[in-house]
Amino acid sequence: MYHPNIWIPRFRNDFIPAIRRVEEVFLKRVQPTFSSIDVESEELQNHLWEEAMAQPCYDDGPDEGQIAQAVQDAAVSHYLGLKGMEQGLLNCCALFLYHLYEQHLMLFLRQELLDWRERDNKKFYRHEVARDLLENANVDITAFTAWPKLEELRHLANTIKHGEGKSSEELLHAAPHLFEMAGLSNTMPLSGRVYTPLLGEDICVKPAHISEYADALEQFWLELGDALITNSVVE
Predict the structure, then answer these.
(1) What local confidence, expressed as pLDDT, does residue 169 receive?
(2) What per-residue confidence (pLDDT) applies to 117?
(3) So which domain of life are we looking at (predicted)?
(4) Dihedral pair phi/psi, residue 39, rounded to 5°
(5) Does 186 have pLDDT greater than 80?
(6) Does residue 197 register a pLDDT over 60?
């Protein structure tokens, strides 16, 4: 016997607040630490220049133009490295949200959907098992409003973890905007190439996307709660 009267409060009071906490921590605490990297890079450039000018001059040493170029290159490299880390962390936030969803679903599966004799059998700890058991109880999660966005997030998470492959092809078809890197012309063709999204390359998750995924996850748990009641899951 399933217990929506127990699980609906857990969805609302545990699962959804955890999702929103991830969103808040990444967008309001982590990302703002990168807001001053342009100033930081400029300060680095000035420091390197002053340090270079304080060194003794030699006839066979670099001239001021060469020093200025080297200093500028170092500052730009510093800036781009930090921008890559900022993008990589935004990508990781999407990855984090999807795996949190999976862990919540496995918790629900193990504690509620599986028979007590199956709860310690790891072969049942799969997304499709939860989906099939719910479908047997007349709850089709693939019909939820949130489902397409969750599928997009699944492909995104796999792409961020594994790079180019089947999921990246699905993602390119479903959400090509995630391959449009900041600063590049929208008229440029998208290659779908994915090498190092954890370093902020090839995949461009934006703060607005994080909020969209958090909204979809919240909607999923609300829809599941409603479905447990509407489809008379309780025997």
Answers:
(1) 94
(2) 82
(3) Bacteria
(4) -65, -40
(5) no
(6) yes
